[in-house]
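README: folding subset

This subset contains proteins for which both the sequence and a predicted structure token string are available. Records are stored as plain text. Below is the entry for 3-hydroxyacyl-[acyl-carrier-protein] dehydratase (126 residues), shown exactly as it appears on disk.
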Amino acid sequence: MQTILTDFYILQSYEQTENGGFVANISLNKDHDIFKGHFPGNPVTPGVCMMQIVKELSEEFTGLKLFLKSASNVKFMAIINPFETPDLKLQLDITQTENEVKVKNITSFGETIALKMSVNYQKLTI
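--- output ---
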């Protein structure tokens, strides 16, 4: 899997759901340089990094190269501290049309929902 978030997270496991979506379990790298600046002494996973993880996992599971076209209903509902809650579960409900991939995501740790969003990606031809 190609990633721009080098060593930021590890895909521990995933499974395909009955509706064609995926559930992925990842672990954040608490020692990544991003957390040294965001924020020193109080590390918080940047929302843009969470959005990038969803894109990268969507590319992995569809086998497609994707470009973010739009995002809606993006709700950051809990702080993700990589020292306290490094293990995350991402539910990705993926639907495809001829030119687009639509993903509804819920990211959680334990019983806490940290992120909900709907995104539309354009399929790229390489």
